[in-house]
Amino acid sequence: MKYLAILLLFIPLSFIGDYLDMDDSLIFVTACIAIVPLAVLISDATEQIAIYTGSKIGGLLNATMGNIPEFFIGLFGLQAGLHQLVLASMAGSIMGNIMFVLGVSIFCGGLVHSTQTFDKTIARSNFSLLCFAAISLIVPLAFKLTNDNPAKLDQGLAVISLSIALILLVIYVMGLVFSLIMQKNLFLEHDSDDYEKRAKWSLPHAIGLLAIASFLVAIESELLISKVEAAVRDLQLPELFIGIIIVPILGNVAEHTSAILMAMRNKIDISVEIAVGSSMQIAMFVAPLLILISFAMGHPLTYVYEPFEVIAVITGILLSLYVFQDGKTYWLEGALLTFTYVVFCVAFFYK
Amino acid sequence: MKYLAILLLFIPLSFIGDYLDMDDSLIFVTACIAIVPLAVLISDATEQIAIYTGSKIGGLLNATMGNIPEFFIGLFGLQAGLHQLVLASMAGSIMGNIMFVLGVSIFCGGLVHSTQTFDKTIARSNFSLLCFAAISLIVPLAFKLTNDNPAKLDQGLAVISLSIALILLVIYVMGLVFSLIMQKNLFLEHDSDDYEKRAKWSLPHAIGLLAIASFLVAIESELLISKVEAAVRDLQLPELFIGIIIVPILGNVAEHTSAILMAMRNKIDISVEIAVGSSMQIAMFVAPLLILISFAMGHPLTYVYEPFEVIAVITGILLSLYVFQDGKTYWLEGALLTFTYVVFCVAFFYK
Amino acid sequence: MKYLAILLLFIPLSFIGDYLDMDDSLIFVTACIAIVPLAVLISDATEQIAIYTGSKIGGLLNATMGNIPEFFIGLFGLQAGLHQLVLASMAGSIMGNIMFVLGVSIFCGGLVHSTQTFDKTIARSNFSLLCFAAISLIVPLAFKLTNDNPAKLDQGLAVISLSIALILLVIYVMGLVFSLIMQKNLFLEHDSDDYEKRAKWSLPHAIGLLAIASFLVAIESELLISKVEAAVRDLQLPELFIGIIIVPILGNVAEHTSAILMAMRNKIDISVEIAVGSSMQIAMFVAPLLILISFAMGHPLTYVYEPFEVIAVITGILLSLYVFQDGKTYWLEGALLTFTYVVFCVAFFYK
Questions:
Q1: What is the mean pLDDT of residues A246-260?
Q2: A236: which DSSP letter?
Q3: Residue B147: closest CA among chain C residues belongs to which residue?
C-alpha cells in the first residue's frame, strides 16, 4: 500500500498544473492518477467504519461508498453534457469487473492453486441482478434500433429509461432492506475475518478521511471531465476508449487489488463477490441514480448505450456465467476472460 | 370462480352491441372480456373430460384444447389479413407465459414459502422444445435481415417457414406419440391429484360445455378481430400492443390463475409445467399449424416476427432458463421476470 | 470401410477429367468425392502412428493432422482469393460438427440406449475454448457493423483479426503444452482402448500412407477450388452453400462416422469429444493459422464472417451447450440439433 501513498502527490500536482494553466492533457493524466489512491482511501476508510458499525450497516456502507469515484465522474460528465462518456464508463465498469478483474483473479489464483472451487449460491443472487441489468441495456437499444415510429421514439425512450431506472432502484433497495432484515446479505458480504480487518483508525479518524477523500475525488473528477476533450485531441485517445477502459480502471483499482489478492490466497469466493458485486452495484445503483439525476437536471440521459458497448457487456456476462456455472475455476477460464477483455480494448481503441 | 361467471354476461353484451351497431371499440372491449370466462370454461371442461378418459388421453386433450382461444384468434386474424397481429399474439403468448405467469407465480410462491425447489428434469424437455422454438423465430428473421439476394428472398422465406412449421409439428407429434406409448408424458402432465380434480360434471355434460364454449370463443374471436382496427383508432392502442400483450392475456387467464395458485400451495413444479408447457404448445403446435393453414389459404404467413418481438421472446427464454437452472426459485427471481415483462410492455406500447 | 475404397477411384477419375479438359462441374464433383476417402485415410494413418508414439504425441498428432483437408482447402481458397468461401468453410465446419455430427450421434445413440450420460467435465474445457472461438466471430463482425469511423475501419479490423488469431493460437499452444506436461489432455483424448485400436500397419507404412494421402488431398483441394466457379454457375449451388455445407462434410466424414458409431456403442463421451474437439480445433488452430498465412501472403483475410454464418455458429454453440449442460442426452435433443442444422442448410441454400 506504500507505493500508493506516492500517488497522493498527484493531487497537488494536478491542482498546480491547473493553476498554472499547463498543458490540458497533462492535467488530465495527473487527475486520472490522483483518483487512484483516493479510490483506495475511500475503500479503506469505509471498511474501517464498517468495523465500528457492525456488518449490517457496514455492508450497506460498502455498497454505497464503493462507487463514489464512478458516481462523481458520472455526475460531472452529465453536467458537462458528455452523455456518451458517462454511459461508456458505466458499461466499462461492468465489463471491466466481470472480464478483467475476474479474469486476472482466476488466472492468478489458478496458477497458484490449480482448480479453485466456490459456493455457487453466493454468486447467484448477484448474477441474477446482473442479468436484469443486462436486460436494462438491451431493451432500450433494441427499442431504438427496431423503431419504425419516429414520432414516438423520444417519448418512448424517456419512459422506458425512467421505468427501468425506477425498477432497478426498487429492486436494489428491496434487496438491501431484505438483507438488513434477514441478516443474510443478498448483496454479497463476506465474513469480516476473511478480509482480516483490524481497526487501525479510530471512528472519527475514519469518517474524516472518508469525507476528505470523497471531497477530493469530486474535485479531481471535475478536473478530469473538464480536460477530456483535450485528452481526446492531444493524446489521440478516442472519447469512447477513455470512457469504457480508462475511467473504470481508475475507480476500480481497490477492487482489482483485493480481488487478485484474495484469489491468490485461495479465496476465490471473495474475488467473485467483489467483481460481480461491484458490477452489479454500478448497474443497479449508480447508473439508474445518474439517469434519475439527469432527468431532474433537465438534460435527460436515456439508457441508450452504443451497440458495441452492449455487445461487450453481454459477452462479458454470458462468458462469466458460463465460467461460474460449475462452481469451479481454473487458469484457462481466467485466461479466456482476460484475453476477451483485451480483444475488446483493442476494438474500442479503433472505434 | 364465481366472479368469473359474471363475466359470462359480456357474451350477450357483445352480441347486443354488435347487433345494435354500437361503438366498435366498445364491442372490442366486451368481446375481449367475454373470451376470459370462456377460456376458463374450456380449461375446466377439458380437465373434467380428462378424469373420465384417463391421464393419457387427458394429457393429449389438455395439450390440444388448452390453446383453443389462441387458435381461433389466430385463424380469424389470418382471414382478416392481420398477419402482424397473429404473429404478435404468438410471440406474446410465449413471452407472457415464461415472463409474466412464471414471474408472478415465483414471486407469490416465494413470498409465502421463501425458496421453492422443483425437479429440474421435468421442466427440461419442455425447455428443450422451447429453445428449438426460439430458433424457429431467429432463423427466418436473420435470413431476412442479412439477405443480399432479394430475388430469392420471398421464395427462401416461404421454404424456410414451411420447413420449420413441418419440423415443429413432426417433433410435437413425435413427442406426443412417445408419451402415449411410454407412459411418461414428455409434454408435461402432473399427477391428477396435484390438481385435486374431482368429477363435478358428467362426461356428456363436460363434452357439451366444451363444444359450446369453443363455439362461443370462435364467435367472440371473430368479433374481436373484426373490431381491432377500431380499437387501434379509438382506444389509441397500437396494433402490436393489442397482439403481443392484450390477446395473450385473454387466452391465458386460466393458466395464469392455476399457476399462481399452485405456486402459493408450494407446488412450483406445476406452475413451471403450466407456464413453460403452454408457451411450448403455442410455439410447437398452434404457430406452425397456423402457418400451414395460411399457406393452404393462399395468403402465406411467413415466420418473420418483428425484431423486437424476437428480442423479447429470446430474453424471456434466456432469463427463465437462468432462473430454472438450479432447480430453486425465490421471490427476487420472480420479481426480475415480472419487472422485465413490465419493461417490455412499456416498450411495446411506444413502438 | 470397404465401400470407401471404391471412392478412391475418384482420385484418378478427377485427374483424367482434368487432363481431358472435361466439364468443369463434373471435375468439381469428382474432386469432392475423392477427398472423402483421403480424409478417412489420413485419420486412420494418424491413429496407427499414435499407437507407436504413445498417447501424448498421438494426441498432438491427431489434433494437428485431423484437419488437413480443411487446411488445404482453406489455403488454396486463400490463394485463389475466395475469402468468403474460406471463412464459410471454417464456420460450416464448426457448425456441422456441433449440430449435425452431434445431433445425429445423439439421436442414433438415444434410439438404441434411451438416455445416455457422459462426464460433463471432459467436454467442459473444449466448450470453454469453443465459447472463446464464438467471441472471435462476434467481435470483428460487431465492430464492423457498429462502425461509425470508416477511416479507421480497415486498420481496426486488421489489428483485431491479428490480435484474435495470435491469442487463439497462444491459448491453443498453451493448452497443448499443458496437456503434454500434465498427462491430462485438455484437448480431448479418449483412452486408446475406447477406439479398440490395433496396429494394422507398420510405422513406416502408416507414415508413408499419411504423407501420400496428405499430398493427394492437397492436389484434390486445389482442383476443387479451381472449379468452384464452374460449380456455382453450372450446378446452381451458391458459393456460400458450397463453403458452409459441402466443403465441411467432405473433410469431416471420418469424424462423422466415428462419432455415430461410438454413440451407438453407448460411448457418447467419445462422440462429444470428437465433435466438440473437432470444432474447437478448426476455431482455435486452422482458422487463426489461415488468418496469419493470409497476412503473410499479403492478401489479409480479416475475421469478418457473414452475419448469418455467425448466427448459425452461435445458435449451434448455445444449443449444444444447453444439450450438454446436464450431462445427459436423449433422442429428442439429437433430433433438435439435427433439425436445426437442416433449417440452416435450407436457409443457406436460399441466401
A1: 82
A2: -
A3: C351
Q: Half-sphere exposure of residue C262, counting CA atoms within 13 Å on the CB side?
A: 24
Q: Which of C64, C92, C24, C39 is nearest to C247 (CA)?
A: C92
> What single letter denotes the amino acid at residue C348?
F
Task: Tell me if chain B has a CB within 8 Å of the CB of A287.
Answer: no
Find, among C238, C190, C195, C187, the residue nearest to C349 by Cα: C238
Residue C132 one-letter amino acid: F
Neighbours of chain C (3+ CB pairs under 8 A): A, B
CB spacing of C145 vs A326 below 8 angstroms:
no
pLDDT score of B121: 66
Which residue do the cell numbers 444439450 mark?
A: C323
Shortest CA distance to C251 belongs to which of C224, C271, C269, C233? C224
DSSP-derived pairing of the beta strands A116-117 and B328-329:
unpaired
pLDDT for position B185? 46
Closest CA to B257 of B80, B22, B40, B51: B40
Rounded distance, CA A44 to CA B333, Å? 33
Taking alpha carbons only, the member of C306, C280, C309, C343 closest to residue C103 is C343
Burial C296-308 (b: 16+ CB within 10 A, else e): eeeebbbbbbbbb
Task: Find the farthest-apart pair of alpha carbons in chain C and give their distance in angstroms, rounded.
Answer: 60
Rounded to whole angstroms, the Cα distance separating A134 from A129 reads: 9
Whether the pLDDT of residue A57 is over 90: the answer is no
B325 contacts on A by Cβ (under 8 Å): 325
Mean predicted confidence (pLDDT) in B50-57: 75
Residue of C nearest to A337 (CA): C132
Q: Find chain C residues with C-beta within 8 A of B147's C-beta.
A: 351
Quickly tell me which residue has 415483462 as its cell: B341
> Dihedral sign, CA of C117, C122, C124, C129?
negative
Does this model's pTM top 0.95? no
Note whether A125 contacts B: Cβ–Cβ < 8 A: yes
Half-sphere exposure of B68 (CA within 13 A, CB side): 27
All three cell numbers of B349, joined, read: 406500447
pLDDT value for A187:
46
Between chain A and chain B, the number of residue pairs with CB atoms below 8 A apart is 79
Residue for grid cell 379509438: B234
Tell me if B143 and C350 make a contact (CB, 8 A cut-off): yes
ipTM: 0.79
Look up residue C96 and give its three cell numbers. 456441422
A21 is written with which cell numbers?
494553466
Cβ atoms within 10 Å, residue A287: 32
Question: Is B351 touching A (CB cutoff 8 A)?
Answer: yes
Which residues from chain C sit within 8 angstroms of residue B124, using beta carbons?
326
CB–CB contact A156 B311 (8 Å): no
Residue B266's pLDDT band, with cuts at 50, 70 and 90, is: confident
With b meaning 16 or more CB within 10 Å and e meaning fewer, what string describes A66-92? bbbbbbbbbbbbbbeebbbbbbbbbbb
pLDDT 10s digits, B209-222: 889 988 998 988 88
pLDDT the model gives residue A45:
86
Instruction: List, as one string, the DSSP characters of A34-83.
Output: HHHHHHHHHHHHHHHHHHHH-HHHHHHHHHHHTTHHHHHHHHHHHHTT-H
Contact present, A158 and A304 (Cβ < 8 Å) = no
Interface test with B, best of C339, C341, C344, C348 (most B CBs within 10 A): C339
- Which residue has better confidence, A86 or B118? A86
Q: Could you report the per-residue pLDDT of C263-303, keeping only the tens digit for each?
A: 888 888 888 888 888 888 888 899 999 999 999 988 888 88
- The 3-state DSSP class for residue B116 equals strand
Q: Do C146 and A346 touch (CB under 8 A)?
A: no
Spatial contact of C303 and C165, defined as CB atoms under 8 Å apart: yes
Question: Which chain A residues have a beta carbon less than 8 Å from that of C167?
Answer: 339, 342-343
